[in-house]
Amino acid sequence: MSALQLAASLRRIPAQVAQVVVDLPPERLRHRPAPGEWSAIEVVGHLVDKLNRWGGRAAAVLRAEGPTLESYDQDECIRQGAYQSVDLDVVLGQLVQAAERFARMLEPLTEFELQRRARHAEYGTSPSSSALPCRSSRWPTICVKQRPRPRLASREPVAELRRTVVRVG
């Protein structure tokens, strides 16, 4: 994928996510299927957090040769974002902004820049061809080996969200 294609893919995500959640009744949107699992709105918040985090990682990769990317606690980000109590329109607006910021960062990149590599503090060097997320047709791929996370097993955000929404119902 070219940088322009990646940017276009990023910009489609908010509409795809909104299509899945916008008509959910509040009790389904905020229902956690099991202890320790995220509600549908928290999954949307996770996507906001992830796009923001990946934008920061992409900037680090572009600033330095082979930087070390720090891991982060996704559950703690969800707690800090307090998405359970945030209005859906606000979270969707945050998703639009995060996708747009990341898309604008990627658009001007050359193929050479898209191939830059990094090292993850916990998982080591990226096994993929690039340290930048969303370099494959299976958007978004991640620049590090993923820990198994049963509640969010898919790397495709809309599939993650749909699975969460289906489990809520």
Q: What's the shape? A: globular
Task: State the helical fraction.
Answer: 40-55%
Physical arrangement of strands within the biggest beta sheet: 1-2-3
Number of domains: 1
Query: Helix- and strand-based class?
Result: mainly alpha
Give a count of the beta strands, DSSP E runs of length 2 or more.
3
Q: What does the average pLDDT come to?
A: 77
N-to-C terminal Cα separation, in Å? 36 Å
CATH names the topology as Four Helix Bundle (Hemerythrin (Met), subunit A)
| Share of residues in strands | under 5%
CATH superfamily: dinb family like domain
Task: Report the CATH architecture.
Answer: Up-down Bundle
- The Cα radius of gyration reads 16 Å
CATH class: Mainly Alpha
Please count the helical segments: 7
- Low-confidence residue ranges: 134-155
Q: What string, H for helix and E for strand, traces the elements in order? A: HHHEHHHEEH
Major sheet characteristics: 3 strands, mixed
Describe the model:
By secondary structure, the chain is mostly helical. The chain has a single domain (3-168), classed as dinb family like domain (Four Helix Bundle (Hemerythrin (Met), subunit A)). It contains seven helices and three strands, in the order αααβαααββα. It has helices at residues 3-21, 26-29, 40-63, 74-81, 88-106, 111-114, 157-168; strands spanning 68-69, 119-120, 124-125. It has a three-stranded mixed sheet with strand order 1-2-3, with helices on one face. A hairpin with a 3-residue loop joins strand 2 and strand 3 (124-125). Helix 1 runs parallel beside helix 7 and helix 3 (40-63) crosses helix 4. The radius of gyration is 16 Å and the shape is globular. The model is unreliable at 134-155 (pLDDT under 50).
